[in-house]
From TrEMBL:
<keyword id="KW-0067">ATP-binding</keyword>
<dbReference type="GO" id="GO:0005524">
    <property type="term" value="F:ATP binding"/>
</dbReference>
<protein>
    <submittedName>
        <fullName>Carbohydrate kinase</fullName>
        <ecNumber>2.7.1.-</ecNumber>
    </submittedName>
</protein>
<keyword id="KW-0418">Kinase</keyword>
<dbReference type="InterPro" id="IPR029056">
    <property type="entry name" value="Ribokinase-like"/>
</dbReference>
<feature type="domain" description="Carbohydrate kinase PfkB">
    <location>
        <begin position="3"/>
        <end position="288"/>
    </location>
</feature>
<dbReference type="GO" id="GO:0016301">
    <property type="term" value="F:kinase activity"/>
</dbReference>
<keyword id="KW-0547">Nucleotide-binding</keyword>
<keyword id="KW-0808">Transferase</keyword>
<dbReference type="InterPro" id="IPR050306">
    <property type="entry name" value="PfkB_Carbo_kinase"/>
</dbReference>
<dbReference type="InterPro" id="IPR002173">
    <property type="entry name" value="Carboh/pur_kinase_PfkB_CS"/>
</dbReference>
<dbReference type="Pfam" id="PF00294">
    <property type="entry name" value="PfkB"/>
</dbReference>
<dbReference type="InterPro" id="IPR011611">
    <property type="entry name" value="PfkB_dom"/>
</dbReference>
<comment type="similarity">
    <text>Belongs to the carbohydrate kinase PfkB family.</text>
</comment>
Amino acid sequence: MSILVIGEALIDIVSSVGAPDRYAPGGAPANVALGLGRLGADVELLTDVGDDFHGGFLLAHLRESAVRVHARPTGSTSTARALLSADGSAEYEFSLRWAPDASLVESTDWAAIHVGSIAAFLSPGAAAVDSLLQRGRASSALLSFDPNIRPTIIGDHEQALARFESLASRVDVIKLSDIDADWLYPESSVESQLERIHEFGARLVALTCGSDGSILSTTSARVTVPAATVEVADTIGAGDSFMSSLIHDLQSPRSRIEDMDEDALKHLGENASRRAAITVGRTGADLPWASEENA
């Protein structure tokens, strides 16, 4: 069975002081699909791209990493301008549309469905997200969600929080950054944030904390995993690499979330951190291939 990823594919325009702009394929869900394809998973992506040069470039890029893309190209492709600071972190400015054609997805039987980022919040495409999650639940797929919060796009806090919590009540796995969690639940401790998310029904919550590592939590076990040591080129795609690693490794029959003790969670987190470090060590969302695992 395949893994279905639903969400935006766009062109990142990377700007840094004293250097010309760089253009690169991006979009958090597209990066997750790309990461899964490079790790050897059978993966498909429902997305929305234009019939322009950028759209053709994105489609070719994804297909080179064995991603089967469902899209009806028309109009202009979405863009995200990433403004890099001296430490390699990025802030984003977006020009977006999100209106995928869910009828292009014919399967009703998936191993997993992942939704994320802007696509989970932005209409009219959010309706396609809801419909496909419902189909995934009916087929017993593993459902995952990464909110990847972009406050300037997803609406006011109350509205976005309601949407986040609605989706959180329908999925098995949630990955979010500490920045996401602090925006959703300001002035709450990490412990309170994790417990709140578990209360909606998520069986596994992964909280990434940049250079401070990550926390992986189930209702019965919790571990802190250090970040892998790496010389940072930039952080673009790091969280997406972490997410694709989680989905990939949870496909193992031995990775039932209910059975995971602290050792199993630690192994899951260490794999994700190692793969994210490979991405951080090179420019852009250049996620690792399976052939690099033992390089």
